[in-house]
Amino acid sequence: MVEPVPAGAQAQAQAGAQSATGVRGYCSDRPGLGTPSCTIDRGRISVETGLVDWQRDRSTGSVSDLALIGETLVRIGVGDAIEIFGGARPLAVARIRENDAGGSTIRGTGDALMGVKVNLANPDGSGFSVAVMPFATLPLGNKALGAGRWTAGISVPLSYAIRDDISLQLTPRIDASADQAGYGRHPACGLVAGVGMALRDAVSITHELAVERDHDPGGPTTRSYLASSLAWMLRHDLQFDFGAVLGLDAASPDARFYVGIARLF
């Protein structure tokens, strides 16, 4: 099974800065590894798509490249501080090459994602903001490209806006992940810490450090990443982004680069 580095959240500095005008800013889940604590307004719909997402991994001794095309997350505001979401990976392509042997290519769809996010304080991301977000994945895709069985977890996104243009972000997470052998589930956890900065009214950057611990029965692993991303608001309801992730240890994928777009309706 080939697993990508989790994808995730835009710096909340931008949403917090826009909320100062009295109108809740667009709180996109892209880009970044963490998850924003802010939620979108009731009745609004956010469609967020990874146009291209490429990752290289040499942690297993072989060289694997994973490309995700069109990975999409749809978020729907169902309350002033509540949103539901669902995600899909319509096309994933994995290329695996052994040291002294030929390579193999796997194409197919990935697993589906669903969940709900409930903000408990400041849904616009201003001040101190916190949310709870239970989620689950459904094994609808190719077994070689997904978990092979359902998984579930919960994260607690937190942020603190130091100023209108700077925020600190923290996303702890615990999962019931699928075993690599495909027989059951095991605990896994992760933590993403980041700082988001609004460089201009329409441009923000996020720098993050992430650590994951996976207690698979086949052998526990710890992975760590350093990530940077940039979001550019083309207009108040349309965002373009790109980012890079680097693995910091031998167990982590080497590098990941992505480009995406998000639109609020």
Give an account of the 3D structure.
The protein is 3% helix and 58% strand. By secondary structure, it is mostly beta strands. It has a single domain, classed as Beta Barrel (Porin), CATH 2.40.160. It has a 15-stranded antiparallel sheet that branches.
Give the structure's gist in a few sentences.
The chain is mainly β.
Write the layout of secondary structure elements.
Blueprint: H1 13-19, E1 45-57, E2 63-77, E3 82-88, E4 91-97, E5 103-108, E6 112-121, E7 128-138, E8 151-155, E9 158-163, E10 166-178, E11 185-198, E12 203-214, E13 221-235, E14 238-247, E15 255-264
Antiparallel strand pairs: 1-2, 1-15, 2-3, 2-4, 3-6, 4-5, 6-7, 7-8, 7-9, 8-10, 9-10, 10-11, 11-12, 12-13, 13-14, 14-15
Observed structural traits:
Porin, mainly beta, 15 strands
Sheet/helix structural class: mainly beta
Query: Radius of gyration over alpha carbons?
Result: 18 Å
Unreliable residue stretches: 1-11
CATH class call: Mainly Beta
Instruction: Output the CATH homologous superfamily.
Output: monomeric porin ompg
Termini separation comes to: 36 Å
Please give the domain count: 1
Sketch the major β-sheet.
15 strands, antiparallel
